[in-house]
Design goal:
This protein is an alpha+beta fold. About 45% of the residues lie in helices and about 20% in strands. A hairpin with a 7-residue loop joins strand 22 and strand 23.
Length: about 775
């Protein structure tokens, strides 16, 4: 066949493959019931990319979110307005486009390895495999990553076989671009270095000087690394590290969440309970940590109506900041952790002037030029700041909290001193200074310290227990503190202890208390690869490794629909045994070893997930040997049929009808799952629940959800949770229950429910919380 005829043949084959791939992808997009959970995360990152690109880089590789952002911008040119569904469809379209384009490098890579005909048949099978097709029509990184990985492999093979080692700079560049989509694309560097070693050994027979033999591989390796760093270095500068995001310590440590105490949902105000003297009060505490950290519990008795005051310290100036607002605390913890370091609960004060007699406001000012706050209780000092300073020197922020003056403070209050330092100015502390400026120290205000809990009260196994004595009759305000070791979450409770003959009922619901789940002090979620210190786990349990091997093998089998595993393995065996040259054998073996190692490592250290997804790259780069395996099988069948003892070697005789019969069988078995199974139809209830919320709730409603897809389809602000929702911030709470609901609390109303899927016994339940008025 002439070169022109071969080119025409390639164009025809590619047109057919890419057209079929696009048609199947569009059909899958149109029939998608629910996108993947990860897809919601990628859309959120793409939305944030235009607002906070550095923050996105620190949390996750920005390559795929950038593609989604660009696709959304392109789609917005043809559609008026914006909506979550525009993001969904444009993101699915971007992923499908990457899958269609990936047929180009894959076809030519297969052509170089096994020939044009086998490459065509291999990619035809790959296009028709259901799970790889599903990933190419969803919002996942697999095919964008594979597009660059296959392009790098094609460039690498061409560079090494043609001896144009300088083009390895392009391989490094492609590896860098792939790295910011998925860090696993750095495996191209491993393949390139192995290929250089093989190619340099093959060239040893050529009569060249030793310096020439060493210089060419060294220059090629340097250009490879340089091309990689061109992309990765700016990414590392923006994100603070070039390590994969899984191996970095978390940027933000989220505080724990107290969802409920007993039958009552957590609230900003104190929760009220009654108990008779001598009776046991038990209140299970629903608490969890979003980061999966172990929780500890503690108690402090504080004056009635007081609130904790949280202290932060500036990492830039060392100045302190206090706030009584939980919203301010959460804002600093989640958005400014590198600037404001949390110091704990400084003392207890009041949020309003009427809580107790004698309370006075503590005013707060902020200086953008000095990057520090100023606090004062003095009205004259406040007016002096207003009068003597310009608007850009001090900004008034209102009353930070309410405390007591020196002349009217209760006996259990402690003094907060205002200290003076010649170099750093004013600071505040509960102990006076002892330096040369001590004479300038003054009492700024009085506040309450944390008190010891009532005798006999304590928390064991996540349950508050207290049997008050007759001497403890009266009202007690107790602060329940749940901490992950660095950040606390608090819930105030007011317990009214009555005498034994009182007719008041225990609001904790005696007889009901056993129905409420409670948090243990153990971390929830899968065991993590890195602790907060970033240290690798010391050992790998043998059971985890065995389970990981089973999951990886099962995932590969499902990707290949089981029936194609045997011809794939036979083709790879034939490649290593007789067909391939040294370079091809090394590269194919490296692809198998590296990807299997990555899959096993992920399963062992990060826990099981979508096992099928992570085998797509390995299958796509080695599926070219599947037609060869089918040839081996048909030849074996022919030998049994004809009783020939010495069949001709593979590739020296025309393909029999058995080969095409096996291809047809594979297509027939793949088609029903590919065509008649909508994407995630088993979770269509998530979309149905989201649409109900969109039609029946206010646009500003906050929805606590165990699955981010619900708020996406609802077009409402989502508040994700894994174990217990943050009841203080949610207007609606979603629970996915297999039998009886477990999250129902006092004041909540069940407003809607829907089956999760047609063949699923779980139900999606929607509650309206007491925070949302009817």
């Amino acid at each position: 066949m002439s070169r022109n005829e071969q080119a025409i043949s390639d164009v025809v084959r590619l047109a057919f493959l890419m057209g079929l791939c696009a048609a199947i992808g569009v059909y899958l997009i149109l029939t998608t019931s629910v996108i993947t959970r990860d897809g919601v995360f990628y859309i959120e990152q793409a939305r944030q990319l235009g607002l906070d690109p550095v923050g996105v880089c620190r949390r996750h590789p920005p390559g795929y979110p950038f593609l989604l952002w660009a696709g959304h911008r392109a789609a917005s040119l043809f559609v008026q307005g914006d909506s979550p569904m525009l993001w969904v469809y444009s993101a699915q379209g971007v992923t499908l486009l990457c899958r269609v384009l990936a047929m180009l490098p894959l076809y030519f890579l297969g052509k170089r390895l096994v020939g044009a005909a086998d490459s065509f048949w291999a990619l035809l099978v790959l296009i028709l495999l259901p799970y790889p097709a599903f990933y190419g029509s969803d919002i996942l990184r697999e095919w964008p990553y594979l597009l660059l990985l296959s392009t790098g492999m094609l460039l690498l093979h061409g560079s090494l076989t043609a001896g144009r080692w300088w083009t390895l700079a392009l391989v490094g560049l492609v590896a860098g671009l792939g790295y910011i989509i998925r860090p696993e694309c750095a495996q191209l560097l491993v393949y390139a270095l192995l290929g250089l070693f093989v190619a340099s050994r093959a060239s040893c027979g050529v009569r060249r000087s030793l310096a020439t033999h060493l210089a060419r591989p060294l220059l090629a390796g340097a250009s490879l690394v340089a091309g990689f760093l061109v992309v990765v270095a700016p990414y590392g500068y923006a994100s603070g590290s070039i390590l994969p995001h899984q191996l970095r310590p978390p940027v933000v440590n989220l505080p724990p969440i107290i969802s409920a105490v007993g039958p009552k949902a957590a609230a900003d105000d104190a929760l009220a309970f009654d108990v008779r003297e001598g009776e046991l009060l038990e209140l299970p505490i629903q608490a969890s940590d979003p980061d999966g950290d172990a929780l500890s519990f503690s108690l402090a008795e504080v004056p009635k109506a007081s609130r904790p005051v949280y202290e932060f310290q500036s990492a830039i100036t060392g100045a302190s900041f206090w706030t009584i607002s939980g919203e301010d605390r959460d804002l600093l913890l989640t958005h400014y952790p590198e600037i404001w370091r949390y110091k704990g609960i400084a003392w207890y004060a009041y949020s309003g002037p009427t809580a107790r007699p004698g309370l006075q406001p503590v005013y707060r000012f902020w200086s953008p030029t000095q990057q520090r706050h100023f606090f004062t209780m003095s009205e004259s000092e406040k007016e002096a700041v207003f009068t003597e300073s310009t608007s850009d020197s001090w900004t008034y922020e209102g009353a930070a909290f309410y405390a007591f003056e020196e002349t009217a403070h209760p006996a259990d209050a402690v003094a907060v001193f205002r200290l003076w330092d010649q170099e750093h100015g004013y600071s505040w502390a509960t102990t006076p200074s002892s330096g040369p400026d001590a004479q300038r120290d003054t009492v700024a205000w009085y506040a309450h310290p944390a008190g010891a809990p009532p005798a006999g009260a304590g928390i064991e196994d996540g349950i508050f227990r207290w049997r008050p004595s007759p001497a403890q009759r009266g009202e007690h305000q107790i602060n329940i503190i749940v901490s992950d070791g660095r950040q606390p979450c608090c819930q105030l409770v007011t317990i009214h202890v009555t005498d034994a003959g009182s007719a008041r009922q225990d609001q904790a619901g005696k007889g009901r208390q056993g129905t409420y789940a409670y948090a243990s002090a153990m971390p929830c979620g899968w065991t993590r690869l890195l602790r907060r210190s970033g240290v690798l786990l010391q050992s790998i349990p043998l059971g985890n490794l065995a389970r990981a091997v089973n999951d990886v093998v099962g995932g590969i089998g499902e990707d290949l629909m089981v029936i194609l595993v045997l011809p794939w393995i036979l083709g790879l065996y034939s490649c290593f045994r007789s067909r391939a040259g040294a370079l091809e054998r090394v590269l194919v073996a490296a692809v198998l070893i590296v990807n299997l190692g990555l899959m096993l490592g992920r399963q062992v250290w990060f826990g099981s997930g979508s096992d099928r997804r992570y085998g797509v790259a390995m299958i796509a780069l080695t599926i070219f040997y599947l037609p060869i395996g089918l040839d081996v099988m048909t030849r074996a069948m022919n030998r049994i049929h004809t009783f020939r003892r010495n069949p001709a070697p593979v590739g020296t005789e025309p393909r029999s009808r058995g080969f095409y019969l096996l291809i047809a069988v594979g297509v027939i078995l793949c088609t029903p799952k590919l065509v008649f199974t909508p994407l995630r139809a088993e979770k269509v209830g998530l979309r149905t629940a989201g649409e109900w919320l969109r039609q029946n709730t206010p646009a500003d409603a906050v929805v606590a959800e165990p699955d981010r897809r619900i708020s996406l389809y609802a077009e409402r602000q989502g508040l994700p949770y894994e174990r217990y929702p943050d009841a203080r911030k949610a207007d609606y709470v979603i629970e996915i229950a297999r039998s009886d609901p477990t999250l129902m609390l006092d004041g909540w109303t069940r407003v809607h429910s829907v089956a999760l899927g047609p063949r699923d016994d779980r139900t999606v339940i929607i509650y309206r919380t007491a925070r949302m008025k009817e």
